[in-house]
Specification:
alpha+beta; Arc Repressor Mutant, subunit A; 2 domains; four-stranded antiparallel β-sheet; 5 helices
Length: 154
């Protein structure tokens, strides 16, 4: 789907506050309520807007420690057990199959080093896992939850 300048404005406002009312949104971008509604329906049905969600602060829920774990698996390709551990752990926020020195990267939010150690041990106990490397984050420099509707052009 291609988006125009008006769609981009709608998306920028929604990225700042997805709970904004249609009335406020239409006023901010100077477009009728029905036009805003139609445009949103099109962006939702096309899949451009995949969901609206609440973003929770992990540290306010006792998950002070953020880490990234890189995983290498053996060449058998049997990752069913690893996939199960990943899907059942609510400490693992994101998981990716990647190219490079490692096969998988996990984004983790957990309480402390003890709970991280428990998770590392659970993952290391999976028979296809050959090697892991875990990096603990110290300071968050930037966090975005979505891409800008129109990328900056330099």
């Amino acid at each position: 789907m291609t988006i125009d300048v008006i769609d981009a404005k709608i998306l920028e406002v929604l990225q700042e506050n997805a709970r904004i009312s249609f009335k406020e949104l239409s006023q901010k971008i100077n477009l009728s309520l029905s036009a805003v509604s139609d445009r949103l329906k099109k962006m939702e049905s096309s899949g451009l807007i995949s969901q609206y969600t609440a973003i929770l602060d992990p540290s306010l829920l006792g998950r002070e420690l953020k880490a990234y774990m890189m995983i290498n698996v053996d060449s058998s390709g049997d990752i069913e057990e690893l996939s199960k551990v990943i899907s059942e752990s609510d400490e693992i926020l994101e998981a990716y199959f990647v190219a490079g020195d490692f096969d998988y990267i996990l984004k983790i939010a957990t309480r402390n080093t003890n709970t991280l150690a428990d998770l590392v041990n659970r993952i290391k106990s999976v028979r296809t896992v050959q090697r892991t490397e875990t990096t603990i984050t110290l300071t968050e420099l930037k966090q975005k939850f979505s891409v800008p509707p129109i990328p900056n052009k330099f």
